[in-house]
Write a structure and sequence with these properties.
The complex is a heterodimer of chains A (244) and B (90).
Chain A: H1 3-27, H2 37-50, H3 55-63, H4 65-86, H5 103-125, H6 134-152, H7 154-160, H8 163-186, H9 210-243
Chain B: H1 6-26, H2 30-50, H3 54-87
The chains are: A mainly alpha (244), B mainly alpha (90).
C-alpha cells in the first residue's frame, strides 16, 4: 500500500470522524449543567451526616463503600495476575551490580523520597478534609519506594521490595477493607456502614470508621504497586543488569 | 457555577492540553515521548484543577507520573537491551 493510497483512505476517515466529533460536542450539556439527583443529595448530607468535608471521599469510602470495594479488588486481582505470570520459583537475585548514577540523582532522589512518602501519608490521612484519599496517597507512597531503587540501587531496594513482606501487607490492606465492612454487619448495621461516624469535621479524625476503610485502601494500593514494580524489576530489568 | 476570573485560566489550560497532546504524538524517540507525555499529564492535571476537580487531578498526577511511565520505561529498557545484545554493544 503506497503512501498515496494510505492518505487517500486516511483523509475521508478523518473528515468523517471530525464531523461526528463536532456533532457530538454540539449536543453535550454546558459545563456545570448537572441534572442527576445524587450529587445534590451527597453535597447536602456529606458534612452534616458524615462529618466529612470532601464529598468525593465521603461517597467513595462511606456512602457507596461496597462499590469501592469492588474497584479495589480489581487492582488486587490485576496485581495477583501479574504476579502469577511473572514470579518464578528462583527467588530473588543476589549478585546484581548496578551503578546508582550521578550524585545529582542521589541528592534530589533522596529528597524526593521523603517528599513523596510525606505527601502520600498526608493524602491518605486528610482524605476526608482535602482532596486526596487512599488511592492517590497509596500511589504517592509507592512512588517513594520506587525512587529508592533509582537512588540507592538494587541492593537497598531488595531489602525493601521483599515480596514475602509485601504480600501480607497487601493482603492486610485488601482484607482489612472487608473486615471493617463485616464489623458493621456484626454490630447489626448494613455492610460497610460507618459505625462511628462521630468524627470532628475538618480534623484528621473526620472519617469515622470510613477513615480505616480509607487507610486499608491506601495500604493495599501502595503495597500492590510496589509488588508490581518488584515483579517487573525481577523479570525484566535484573536480567539486563546481570548481562552487563 | 464557575468564577468569572477562572475563565481566562480555563482557556490557558485548554490551550496547554491542545499543544501538549500533539507534541506527544509527534515525538518519535520513546524516551523523549515519556518526558513529553509527563508534561501532557501535567497540563491535564492543571485542567482538572482549574475546572474544579482536584480529586481527578490528583489521580491523574499519580497515574501519569508513576504508574504509566513505569510500564513504558520497563518496556524501553527491555527492548534496548535486546537490540544492544544484537549489536554487541551495551
Amino acid at each position: 500500500m503506497t503512501r498515496r493510497v494510505r492518505i487517500g483512505f486516511f483523509l475521508p476517515a478523518l473528515a468523517g470522524f471530525a464531523a461526528l466529533l463536532v456533532w457530538a460536542y454540539t449536543g453535550i450539556p454546558s459545563f456545570g449543567d448537572y441534572q442527576g439527583p445524587y450529587g445534590f443529595v451527597i453535597n447536602r448530607i456529606s458534612t452534616p451526616l458524615r462529618h466529612m468535608d470532601n464529598a468525593v471521599n465521603s461517597t467513595t469510602y462511606d456512602i457507596r463503600g461496597i462499590d469501592t470495594m469492588g474497584e479495589e479488588f480489581i487492582l488486587f486481582a490485576a496485581v495477583i495476575g501479574v504476579v502469577l505470570l511473572l514470579r518464578d520459583e528462583e527467588g530473588r537475585s543476589e549478585d546484581v551490580e548496578d551503578d546508582t548514577g550521578s550524585d545529582v540523582i542521589r541528592i534530589f532522589g533522596t529528597l524526593a523520597i521523603g517528599a513523596a512518602v510525606l505527601v502520600g501519608l498526608w493524602l491518605v490521612s486528610f482524605g476526608f478534609v482535602t482532596p486526596g484519599g487512599g488511592f492517590q496517597g497509596g500511589v504517592a507512597i509507592a512512588s517513594g519506594a520506587l525512587l529508592l531503587y533509582l537512588v540507592a540501587g538494587y541492593r537497598e531496594w531488595s531489602a525493601f521490595g521483599d515480596e514475602t513482606k509485601l504480600d501480607p501487607i497487601k493482603g492486610i490492606g485488601g482484607g482489612g477493607y472487608v473486615v471493617i465492612g463485616l464489623a458493621a454487619l456484626v454490630s447489626g448495621m448494613p455492610f460497610l456502614h460507618n459505625f462511628f461516624s462521630g468524627g470532628v469535621t475538618g480534623s484528621v479524625w473526620s472519617g469515622g470508621s470510613a477513615g480505616f476503610v480509607n487507610w486499608s485502601a491506601g495500604i493495599e494500593v501502595a503495597a500492590a504497586l510496589v509488588i508490581l514494580f518488584s515483579e517487573f524489576l525481577e523479570k525484566y530489568i535484573v536480567p539486563i543488569a546481570k548481562s552487563r | 457555577m464557575i468564577l468569572a476570573t477562572l475563565v481566562p485560566l480555563q482557556g490557558v489550560a485548554l490551550g496547554l492540553v491542545a499543544l501538549a497532546a500533539p507534541a506527544v504524538v509527534l515525538s518519535r524517540d520513546p524516551l523523549k515521548m515519556i518526558v513529553v507525555n509527563g508534561l501532557y499529564g501535567l497540563s491535564l492535571v492543571l485542567l482538572f484543577v482549574i475546572y474544579g476537580a482536584p480529586d481527578v487531578g490528583l489521580s491523574m498526577l499519580v497515574v501519569g507520573t508513576v504508574a504509566y511511565p513505569l510500564v513504558v520505561l520497563v518496556a524501553i529498557a527491555r527492548v534496548r537491551a535486546r537490540e544492544g545484545g544484537k549489536d554487541g554493544e551495551e
